[in-house]
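Continuing the batch. This is chain 6 of the set; chains 1 through 5 are on the previous pages. Same settings as before, nothing changed between runs. Recording input and output for traceability.
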Amino acid sequence: MKAVVWHGIGDIRLDEVPEPTIQDPHDAIVHITRSAICGTDLHFVRGTMAPMQEGTILGHEAVGVVTSVGDAVRGFSAGDRVVINSTISCGACRYCRMGQTAQCDVANPNGPQAGTSFFGGPESTGPVNGLQAEYVRVPWAQNTMHPLPDNVSDEQAILLSDIFPTGWFGAELAGVTRGDVVVVFGAGIVGQFAAASAFKQGAGRVIVVDGEETRLAAALAQNCEVVDYNREDPVQAIMDLTNGIGADAVIDAVGVDAERPKRGPAAVSDEQAAAFDAEVAQVAPDASPDGFGEAQQWKPGDGPSQVAQWAVACVAKYGRIGIIGVYGPTAQSYPIGEAMNKNLTIRMGNCDHHSVTPPLIDMVAAGQFDPTALITEHEGIGSAIDAYEAFDRREPGWIKVELSDTSA
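Output for chain 6:
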């Protein structure tokens, strides 16, 4: 079967690999009908979240049809149409019972202290082969899949695998309440869903900050107020928009591959640029700071702590910050002193998919929210590498890439 396979930093390939088989009674095998490329996948190719294991299949978002289940899987059978959670969880440990499924004590093969296990990730997360393939093995399938109602399409469901739940989780981490002024940093697909989720959770205003015009246009289409950090200083703009108070809540939907402003009043000084360059070297010591080739493919973000600095600066005193943008263990720069002096509450982490997703499936099924407008690119799995490269280059309009099995 075909699968997108990680071979090294800057080196992914569409390979022919063996079809997966059931290895444990809790496994299921699923024929994938839709998968997707996420910004998190780019971290692994750029080298900003490491180490990876060569030969790992990438991808952590998928919809498909169950073809077989292990003897311990109850509630699912061959022929069931399912959405697969990005994070893997057993359903029986104390964390799963509290709904904190991202920190399942059992799912990560590296042990209970290893943290989140998810598909297609670094060695520290398993590794577990990912979902950008024609068939996949789903460990702990009973708690890692959800059945789909007939009135939720595959195209809607692919955004329920990770993106919509993660955006919703980000708004929850930031403690969004009725009437809040919420700032979302990042107008990529996670930021778009964080903005939509903030409105659904009661935000009075949502301000989205990014440096790419087509992404900001998508946020504007959701009735968000937008700030282009290459045209104005985002911190000053937010203070001006809030009568000098700052935001009640901030959602960081960017993470470690943040880009620093290249022009405008927020453009960094030579001293700041040197500090960011040192951060890049610390975060991604094996990456190519200038990318690969003339197109600078797989270039790490050049401002790893940029959004962290902006978030702390623009939130009000006693404000709240939720971090869902990915930061790896090597990211160690954070303005903690400034945050402490403002009495901020900062929460972060990977989405508890199994507990967050079911109400969102119901919301989509009831017609209360249609996520499909934010899928901007539709590609067959045979075009996956070209799609990865275009997405990595941040080409205008590329917000979310769906991959389909054209044989399905």
